[in-house]
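Quick one, tokens below:
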């Protein structure tokens, strides 16, 4: 696939200084951080995303990694000589607190409650542990979308000694850390809270028990085991793990994380972990709080409730690029993430893509497709919108792509599946979306007296048009017919056309639809309606 010309590296570095797109705004904050520190001590700027492997990766996982990648790329354009790295960190040393409802071998899993996820046997029988299974799913998920990252396992980091120095800092600053955490807990929880969760030397479980004794000089902590006996272990070498808010701070300190995003629901946790990082003698990473997704009722999406849309759902009906656009747009604004946002996202993506070639370099770096494609923006011409395709499938009463291409090639000559593979793929998406969401809700009705007058006038106007009339010309006649029928609001006229001719309450520009479907087939529909014969399932005229 061809790509379009983009700003040269030198121009891009200059443009990035003042670009207003949010990834550039974030990148400039990271660059200031690096400058304030006199450069990255570890030799590169570290971006991190976190993952809890007790479940499978989901659409939020995609959003966080995609957005973080956009910021990292913006920094690369802003400071091309500054090395960067993105890590995906899996909290796979967490104890299994409950058996997920969507896995096999439930009884076997129940026998391993509270054990680290990387110790719990894999219920699917394909990997060494449940944690390894889900880590593999995560990596396959990220690889599927071409993300560039390094994978970090909490188990490996704890056991290899990578976390040892920071764990000893937590122990040495135990009182200060506790003073930050305890005010955020309930009264009962305060009595038993300890930032360290020991791994039982006898059962292998991650214990949530109060601390009995600590020795900062020796680097050890003492707890009471499940059988009542005391045991002492070092905080290093994977003998303990930290409670998650302390763990987050400890991880930032140990790895030197420079940038990490988090959802708005974790704002207070970010503040707490940042304070602990400062206690450990380090600077917390730059952060970005993104808003959460809402369902079709405006309620927060929850994996456990299943009231949203999965990434598999989105990719059944639309492209990865349209999903990336959805993630790019207004990340600090709560947005509905449900099936009816998909057609708009698809068409907006291709609209931005169409504008790109004619934009100045300064405009191109603000265009979402520049960030979606990492600067290598493809040259794709989409002569038909997704919304028009949906209505074409509806009006033509066909899922035969060959017939659909017959309409399209007449509307846009020399357009074929070979010359426009993206449009060919879009037809598959349109057919799937129509079958699942449009067809079940279609409700045709007959026109009322005012609407009938408008349709009669529109039919006269369409018959008077030349055979090669384009969508804009047709649209002008549609407007004129609505004005002649004296609608108080032309929106009511268009709504009537959608309901009477297409069996739905809204759609794309009617002129574009008629040009695509054809004037004669449209006239046949109008004539049928004017003869009192509904096009499908009807409801009374409004």
């Amino acid at each position: 696939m061809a790509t379009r010309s983009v700003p040269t590296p030198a121009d891009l570095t200059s443009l990035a200084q003042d670009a207003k797109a949010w990834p550039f705004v974030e990148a400039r904050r990271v660059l200031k951080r690096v400058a304030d520190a006199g450069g990255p001590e570890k030799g590169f700027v570290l971006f991190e995303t976190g993952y809890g492997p007790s479940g499978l990766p989901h659409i939020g996982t995609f959003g966080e990694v995609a957005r973080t990648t956009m910021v990292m790329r913006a920094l690369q354009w802003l400071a091309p000589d500054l090395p960067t790295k993105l890590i995906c960190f899996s909290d796979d040393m967490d104890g299994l607190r409950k058996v997920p409802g969507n896995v096999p071998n439930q009884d076997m899993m129940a026998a391993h409650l509270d054990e680290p996820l990387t110790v719990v046997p894999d219920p699917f029988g394909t990997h060494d542990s449940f944690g390894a299974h889900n880590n593999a799913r995560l990596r396959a998920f990220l690889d599927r979308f071409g993300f560039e990252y390094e994978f970090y396992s909490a188990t490996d980091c704890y056991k290899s000694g990578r976390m040892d120095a920071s764990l000893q800092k937590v122990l040495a600053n135990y009182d200060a850390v506790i003073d930050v955490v305890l005010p955020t807990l309930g009264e009962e929880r305060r009595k038993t809270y300890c930032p360290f969760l020991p791994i039982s030397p006898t059962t292998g479980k991650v214990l949530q028990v109060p601390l009995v004794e600590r020795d900062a000089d020796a680097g050890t902590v003492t707890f009471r085991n499940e059988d009542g006996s005391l045991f002492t272990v070092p905080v290093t070498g994977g003998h303990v793990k930290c409670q998650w808010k302390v763990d987050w701070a400890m991880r930032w300190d140990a790895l030197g994380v420079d940038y990490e995003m988090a959802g708005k629901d974790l704002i207070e946790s970010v503040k707490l972990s940042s304070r602990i990082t400062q206690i450990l003698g380090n600077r917390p990473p730059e952060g970005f709080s993104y808003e959460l997704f809402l369902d079709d009722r405006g309620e927060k999406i929850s994996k456990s409730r299943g009231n949203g849309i999965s990434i598999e759902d989105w990719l059944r009906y639309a492209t990865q690029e349209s999903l990336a656009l959805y993630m790019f747009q207004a990340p600090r604004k709560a947005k509905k993430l449900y099936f009816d946002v998909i057609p708009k996202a698809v068409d907006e993506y291709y609209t931005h893509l169409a504008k790109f070639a004619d934009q100045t370099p300064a405009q191109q770096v603000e265009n979402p497709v520049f960030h979606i494609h990492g600067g290598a923006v493809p040259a794709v011409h989409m002569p038909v919108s997704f919304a028009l395709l949906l209505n074409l499938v509806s009006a033509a009463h066909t899922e035969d792509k060959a017939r659909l291409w017959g309409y399209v090639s007449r509307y846009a000559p020399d357009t074929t599946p070979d010359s426009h593979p993206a449009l060919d793929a879009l037809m598959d998406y349109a057919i799937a979306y129509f079958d699942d969401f449009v067809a079940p809700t279609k409700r045709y009705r007959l026109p009322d007296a005012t609407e009938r007058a408008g349709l009669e006038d529109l039919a006269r106007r369409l018959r008077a048009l030349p055979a090669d009339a384009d969508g804009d010309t047709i649209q002008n006649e549609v407007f004129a017919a609505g004005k002649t029928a004296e609608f108080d609001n032309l929106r009511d006229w268009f709504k009537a056309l959608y309901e009477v001719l297409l069996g739905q309450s809204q759609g794309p520009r009617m002129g574009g639809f008629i040009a695509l479907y054809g004037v004669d087939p449209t006239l046949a529909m109008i004539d049928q309606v004017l003869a009192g014969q509904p096009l499908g399932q009807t409801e009374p005229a409004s």
